[in-house]
């Protein structure tokens, strides 16, 4: 936590205006942008909700988690360059140009409500994890998590968020890979696990493993992710169109590779911890049982980091909408950049308080996965379709965007409240109706010359590649300092892991951790030597 706080304070020094605070001045390198994108969509939700599915149904949990690959590929191919060319600071900003100010305000307010609900589920998940792994009560775990995550998001803006995401990614991957061999060993080896639970190694195991359910879920996640404000923010924060495509493809690769490693311990829990009352405790239960206390601290830090990365990004982009799309438009149009940065930081505090309070009540919706699935199906679809397809097609009208939201949410509430209709059928009907309403509005041609000219000019902007003058150049001095921040963070992480491993020397987990810590220390030394060769002569980092 101290390491992450140091990163946030450091990057806070470089934030000069609201554009830097919310999109890093379009200078985020695509590689760390992709890692941040991955971590922003990733949280303890995977180690609670998806782990619970893997415990019950095995590799079907991986099938569900692979649904995240497709929205990244879609964004890389069709949407990323459009988001970058749009020149926006917040994901809903373009809606005023594309439709009108009423659509922008509607999506700002309702979208904030959906983001609040989604983040409450994420905080609930980390509360479950901390409660199982420590002596904290659920109430204490939620309050502590909400306070820490809010405080860390306030200082440095999106640059601090993406750098913290990258560092937390290293810790998360290390801790997760550490648990895989320990879990397989405790389960008697992979062959014993397969022999004892063959159904868990069937990709289509479980009541939801039907083609229709999987198709609808994949379609739902593709819509949800491509309309996710954090997801969109990463694409317009990089320097050019090529970087936005690389960001999307690399994010897809990360989502494809790592799910199997994350869920193997939860599958092994069938052998290690049979008959769990709450399957969502599977992953943390295995970690508590197999990891020595020092390394369990590392695992807890890794899982907390995953949620922290996710919510850091969410709180930043939600504050962006509150500040630029609501406060700046409706309250004070002529404030200074310093004024708006302070308003943005106060809005992060507001977001943190509301999300933390709501997380205490998520359990009443049936657990993390069910709550997320239900809320997404009802609310996210009507908001996603106009937000995504409004930047792809110029035919739909403003009335279509508003009607899609109103009718879609109302229909979703009705369908999901009917006992005789399945979730997948209710969701498919809602998607179909929303598409019909939105694109149906395009058959009614606008009579407003101003609207037609504005929309045509916007789509001309989206079709026009960025000029050389529109592509920012990152200061070599800043890049050098950024490089040194990574070197220092890797060295400190390696030293911390080494210290924790020495506390339980002689165990299998300690031996693996020792190897990993030496790797991080050697890597940081190599990167430090490499950075010295390219140190700029100019000492200024302005």
From TrEMBL:
**Main localisation, per the record?**
membrane
Q: Where in the cell is it found?
A: Cell membrane
Q: One of this protein's Pfam families, by short name?
A: SSF
Its topology with respect to the membrane?
Multi-pass membrane protein
Which positions, given as ranges, span the membrane?
28-48, 54-76, 121-138, 144-162, 169-190, 210-227, 247-269, 281-304, 342-362, 374-392, 399-419, 425-445, 478-506, 512-530
Q: Which UniProt keywords apply?
A: Cell membrane, Ion transport, Membrane, Sodium, Sodium transport, Transmembrane, Transmembrane helix, Transport
Against InterPro entries, the record matches this protein to: Na/Glc_symporter_sf, Na/solute_symporter, Sodium:Solute_Symporter_SSF
Q: Which family does this protein fall into?
A: Belongs to the sodium:solute symporter (SSF) (TC 2.A.21) family.
User: NCBIfam families attached here?
Assistant: sss
Q: What is this protein called?
A: Sodium/solute symporter
């Amino acid at each position: 936590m101290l390491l992450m706080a140091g990163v946030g304070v450091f990057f806070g020094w470089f934030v000069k205006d609201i554009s830097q605070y919310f999109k890093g001045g379009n200078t985020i390198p695509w590689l760390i942008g992709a890692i941040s994108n991955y971590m922003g969509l990733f949280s303890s939700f995977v180690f609670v909700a998806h782990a619970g599915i893997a415990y019950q149904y095995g590799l079907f949990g991986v099938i569900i988690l692979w649904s995240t690959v497709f929205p990244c590929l879609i964004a890389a191919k069709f949407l990323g360059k459009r988001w970058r060319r749009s020149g926006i600071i917040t994901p809903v900003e373009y809606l005023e140009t594309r439709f009108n100010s009423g659509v922008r305000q509607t999506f700002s307010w309702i979208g904030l409500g959906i983001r609040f609900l989604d983040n409450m589920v994420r905080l609930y998940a980390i509360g479950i994890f901390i409660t199982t792994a420590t002596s904290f009560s659920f109430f204490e775990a939620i309050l502590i998590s909400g306070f820490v995550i809010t405080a860390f998001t306030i200082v440095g803006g999106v640059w601090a968020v993406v750098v913290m995401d990258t560092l937390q990614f290293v810790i998360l991957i290390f801790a997760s890979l550490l648990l895989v061999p320990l879990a397989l060993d405790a389960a008697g080896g992979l062959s014993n696990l397969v022999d004892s639970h063959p159904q868990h190694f069937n990709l289509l195991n479980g009541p939801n493993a039907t083609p229709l359910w999987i198709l609808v879920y994949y379609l739902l996640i593709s819509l949800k992710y491509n309309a996710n404000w954090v997801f969109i923010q990463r694409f317009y924060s990089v320097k050019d169109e090529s970087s936005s495509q690389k960001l999307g493809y690399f994010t897809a690769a990360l989502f494809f590779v790592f799910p199997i490693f994350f869920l193997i311990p939860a599958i092994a829990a069938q052998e290690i911890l049979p008959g769990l009352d709450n399957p969502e405790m599977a992953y943390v239960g295995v970690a508590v049982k197999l990891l020595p206390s020092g390394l369990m601290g590392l695992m807890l830090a890794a899982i907390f980091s995953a949620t922290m990365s996710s919510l850091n990004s969410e709180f930043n982009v939600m504050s962006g909408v509150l500040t630029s799309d609501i406060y700046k438009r409706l309250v004070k149009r002529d404030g200074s950049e310093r004024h708006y940065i302070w308003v943005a930081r106060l809005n992060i505090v507001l977001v943190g308080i509301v999300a933390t309070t709501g997380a205490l009540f998520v359990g009443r919706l049936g657990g993390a996965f069910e709550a997320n699935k239900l809320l997404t199906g009802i609310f996210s679809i009507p908001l996603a379709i106009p937000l995504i397809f409004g930047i792809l097609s110029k035919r739909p009208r403003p009335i279509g965007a508003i009607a899609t939201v109103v009718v879609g949410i109302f229909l979703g509430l009705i369908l999901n409240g009917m006992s005789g209709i399945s979730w997948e059928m209710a969701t498919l009907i809602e998607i179909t109706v929303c598409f019909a309403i939105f694109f149906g509005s395009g058959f009614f041609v606008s009579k407003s010359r101003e609207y037609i000219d504005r929309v045509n000019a916007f789509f001309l902007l989206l079709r026009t590649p960025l000029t050389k003058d529109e592509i920012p150049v990152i200061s070599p001095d800043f890049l050098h300092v950024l490089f040194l921040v990574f070197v220092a963070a890797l060295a400190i992480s390696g030293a911390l892991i080494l210290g924790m491993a020495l506390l339980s020397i002689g165990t299998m987990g300690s031996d693996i951790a020792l190897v990993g810590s030496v790797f991080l220390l050697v890597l940081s030394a190599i990167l430090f030597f490499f950075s010295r060769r390219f140190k700029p002569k100019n000492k200024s980092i302005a």
